[in-house]
Amino acid sequence: MTAHSPGGRDATTGVPAPARAAEEPSKAGRLPGLDGLRALAIVAVLTFHLDPSWLPGGFLGVDVFFVVSGFLITTLLVRERAVTGGLDLPGFWTRRARRLLPALLVCVPASVLLARLSEGDLLVGIGRQVLGAFTFTSNWLELAAGSDYFAATTPTLFMNLWSLAVEEQFYLLWPLAVLVLLRVTRGYEARAAVALGLAVVSAVLMAVHVDPQSPTRAYYGTDTHVMGLMLGAALAFAWAAPHRAWTRTPWWGAHRRQVAAAALVTLLALMATAGEASAWTFRGGILLASLATTALVLVVVERPGRIQAVLELPAARWIGARSYGIYLWHWPVFLVIGADLPVAPGSPAYLATRVWCVVMTLVIADLSYRFIETPVRRYGFRGTAGRALARLRAMGPRGARVLWGLALVLALVVTVVLVTAPERTATEELITANEAALALEDTTASSADERRPANPGTATADAASSSPSPTASAAVAASTTADWTMPSGKEIDVFGDSMAVGSIHALRYYLPGIRVDGKSNRQWSAAPTYVAAKGDSLRRAVVIVLGTNAGTDLPVARKTLDAIGPDRMVVLTTVHGRFARAEEDNAALRELVEGRPNVRLADWDAALKGTSGQLQSDGIHPSLKGSHLFAKTVRQALADLSEERTGKAVVLKELPSP
Q1: What is the dihedral of CA 531, 537, 540, 541, to 10 degrees?
Q2: pTM for this predicted structure
Q3: pLDDT per residue as tens digits for the range 236-266
Q4: Are 390 and 495 within one domain?
C-alpha cells in the first residue's frame, strides 16, 4: 500500500519577470532546501512501500509533498500577480501539463506492458486505473471501486497515482480561488487566514470520516486530505507579506533553531511511529506532520542554516529533482519485480530484491528526467515534437517507417492488453470457486440434518444470529471430554476468512475430513457467532484463521476462546501481509495465547521467512505451493500442542507436496 505524488515539482523557483514566468524560472529565484525536503519525502514513501514494517509512518511523505506543493504553487501565483498585475491561468495550466503529462504518458503504457509480461493479476481493474491516471481522478475512482490503500488484497498497478490526482485537482481549482482571494481580500494575512481555515476544515473532515478499520476514504479524499496543500498556501501568503511570515521579529531570531529542531524531530518521529492502524494518525497525526513540514519549509527558505545545508547536499538535490519520476515509477516497478522475484521477508535474498527495486526505480526515473521531462519542460510540447520530427527525418525514410511502425504496434498491443485484462485475480477466482463448493456442502449437510430426528441437546439455528451467552459458552466448554491426542481431520473445525477458503484443498490433503467454515472478508468480530452456531457439534480441535481483514480484536478473540472452552485444542494462525499492522496483530495473538494451555499459534508469518513462490501476487494469500506450507504449519501446531499436553511425541506422515 499506496503514498504519494511529488507531482508538479519544477516550481522550485520564483518568477522574477513576466518574460521568464512563461518559461523556466530564473535560477536566481530558486528557493533553497526544498529539493532536499522532497528527497526526504520520497525516501520515506519508498521505504514504506518496500516494507511497511521498516517505516510504519512512511506514507506521511505525501504530506511533505503536499505542503511543499501548496507553498510553491501559491508563491508562483502571488509573484506573478505582483509582477504582471494579473494571473495567466492558461499559461499556468500549460506549465503544469508540461511538467506532469510527458512522464505519465510514458509510464502508464510501459507499466501496463511490463505487468502483462510479468503477472496477469496486476492488470485487474486496469481500465479504471488508466482512466483515473489520465483524468487525474484516481483517488475518487478507487474509492468508488472499494479499493483499500492500507490492506489491499488485490494488487493495484497505479495505486500511487491517487495523490497525483489530489494535486492536479488542486492545480486546477486553487488558481481560481487565489484569483478571487486577491480581489476580495486586503492584506496577505487575511488570505493566509482563509487558507489556514480551509486546512482546519479538511483536518476536521478527515477526523470525522475516518473509519479506523478502513481509513482509505479519509486518506484518499480530496476534501479530507487537502490540509497540507492549504497549510503550504497559507505559508506562501504570509511569506509574501512585508514581515516575511513574521521571521523579521525578535522572537523568531531567538527561537528559530528550536523551531527547526522541534519540527524535524516531530516529523521523523511521526514517520517512525504513526502507522495506519492507529485512528490518531488520521485524527491529528497527519495534521501534525503537515504543520511540522510547514515549519521546516519556513526554516529552510528563510535563511541559510544547518538543516538547509544538509538538504542542499548534491545527493539530496539529485533525488529531489527526480522525485516526480521516482514517485511515478516506483510502485509499478516494485510490483513487477515482486511478481518476478517473490521472496518473503526474512532473508538476504529478500533484502536483495528490495535493493534491486530501488536501483531500477532510480535508473528509470533518471532516464525519464533526462530524456522526457526536461526536454518538454525546456522546449514545450511543440518544440519537443519538432525536435523529435527533425531527428526522424535525419534517420531517413526507412528508419522513420520502422519507428512509426514500432509505435503503432506498441499502441495496438497496449490496447489489446487493456481490452483483454482479467476482471478478477487468480486468487479471487480460486476463493470464489471454493466458497461456492463450501456453500453447496453446507446446503447438503443442512438437508441431511433436516431428515434426522430433532435432538433437544443440539443448538438451535437462532444461535447463528446472536453471540453466545455465558451459559451457552459454559455448555460448549463442557460438551467434550478433554482429549489431547493428535486429532484426525474429522475431529477438527476450521473457522476462517479467505486465507482458509483458499487453502481448503491443502488442509483436506494433510487433514482428511477437516470441516471448514470460511468466507472472504470475515473478521474477528463475527467469530463468537460462528462458534456458537456449531453448538454441541463443535469438534474437539478448532483452528481459527482470522485477522487478515481489520486485524486482531483482542476482546472479541478472548470471548471466542472462552466460548470454545479450555477442553478443546485450539490453533490460531498468525497473519502475513504488506501492511504495517501485521507485527502488531501477531503480537496481539501472542498475548492472547498466554495463560491458555489449550491454545497454540501456527506461525504462518514465521514459516514464510526467507521462502519464495509461496504467495499469490497480492503478497497475502498462499499460492498452490504456499497453501501446502500453510496446511503443514497448522498441522504441526496441532502436533506440538498434543506433544505439550500428553508428553508423547507425534510422528506426522510425510506427504508429497508441490
Answers
A1: -50
A2: 0.83
A3: 999 999 999 999 999 999 999 999 999 999 9
A4: no
